[in-house]
């Protein structure tokens, strides 16, 4: 692994050169960060669990016709992906108020929103990923109007699918973040789902108890993060029981 060329290192993942042109290897680290990386910890097993959960979700999204960068999982911590030109936006879909929307607009955490809301944040750590409007995005050429239409439609399809998928295993999908990129295929450019979809990038609450099964356990020092992610993986049928999920994670 260390002999491969590193293309990019982020907070929770590393990208290496792939085996063929146009591919990359995405490696899931155990590092957890929050509050624009002011808070950091290494949580044993997180990378393995996110690799498996994201594989499961991306595979299902591919199957319903949502184009994703995912090709296949290679091992416990790595997956083969298509190389994309990343669109510098974090696309957040919200069903229930929590986190920054509760703070910004004073909506109590846990309130059902009148409809699903899509928000855009400019991906820029130095600026703290500010909330931006479609006007900013098109004026500054971060994405075209056509790409924004594609992103909006894909984000809402992903939301419908994930709400059903998690709902079926007793989990409420509160909100989540997606990233998209451009995939060049000859003359064609396609808008494709990138990054990961995992409890690091979603808020997931147990439908009965509202127990948080996501990265808020780290942000809020609630503990038991690997156990919560293992529970999500087990409920989705990725592992037979949480203990085996945790054992694989370690
Ligand atoms: N999110 C993320 N990465 C970020 C910011 C947010 O994955 O850099 C996810 C977060 O886990 C949540 C959703 O996007 O599921 C909405 O996050 P919010 O805007 O409420 O910000 P936060 O409260 O996490 O700062």
How would you characterize this protein structure?
By secondary structure, this protein is an alpha+beta fold. The chain has two domains: 6-84 and 226-245, Phosphorylase Kinase, domain 1 (2-Layer Sandwich); 86-206, ATP-grasp fold, B domain (D-amino Acid Aminotransferase, Chain A, domain 1, 2-Layer Sandwich). The protein has helices at 46-63, 99-105, 134-139, 145-167, 216-219, 225-235, 242-249, and strands at 6-9, 13-17, 23-28, 31-34, 39-42, 70-73, 78-82, 85-86, 89-96, 112-122, 131-132, 171-178, 180-185, 188-193, 202-206. The structure holds uridine-5'-diphosphate (UDP). Uridine-5'-diphosphate is lined by residues 90, 92, 98-100, 129, 175-177, 201-203, 215. Residues 90, 92, 98-100, 129, 175-177, 201-203, 215 line the site of uridine-5'-diphosphate (UDP).
What key attributes describe this structure?
250 residues, alpha+beta, Phosphorylase Kinase, domain 1, D-amino Acid Aminotransferase, Chain A, domain 1, 2 domains, five-stranded antiparallel β-sheet, 15 strands, binds uridine-5'-diphosphate
């Amino acid at each position: 692994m260390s002999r491969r060329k590193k293309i990019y290192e982020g907070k929770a993942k590393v990208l290496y050169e792939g085996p063929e042109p146009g591919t990359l290897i995405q490696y899931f680290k155990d590092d957890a960060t929050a509050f624009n990386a002011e808070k950091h910890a290494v949580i044993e097993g997180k990378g393995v669990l996110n690799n498996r959960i994201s594989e499961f979700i991306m595979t299902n999204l591919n199957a319903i016709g949502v184009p994703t960068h995912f090709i296949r999982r290679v091992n416990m911590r790595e997956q083969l992906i298509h190389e994309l030109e990343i669109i510098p936006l974090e696309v957040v879909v919200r069903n229930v108020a929590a986190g920054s929307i509760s703070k910004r607009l004073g909506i109590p955490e846990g309130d059902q929103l009148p409809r699903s809301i899509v928000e855009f944040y400019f991906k820029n750590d130095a600026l703290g990923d500010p909330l931006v409007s479609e006007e900013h995005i098109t004026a500054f050429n971060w994405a075209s109007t056509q790409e924004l239409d594609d992103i909006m439609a894909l984000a809402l399809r992903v939301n419908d699918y994930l709400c059903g998928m998690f709902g079926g295993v007793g989990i409420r999908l509160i909100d989540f973040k997606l990233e998209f990129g451009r995939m060049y295929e000859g003359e064609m450019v396609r808008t494709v789902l990138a990054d990961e979809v995992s409890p690091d990038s979603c808020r997931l609450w147990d439908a009965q108890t509202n127990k948080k099964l996501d990265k808020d356990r780290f942000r809020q020092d609630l503990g038991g993060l690997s156990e919560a992610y293992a529970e999500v993986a087990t409920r989705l049928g990725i592992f037979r029981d949480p203990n085996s999920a945790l054992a694989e994670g370690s």
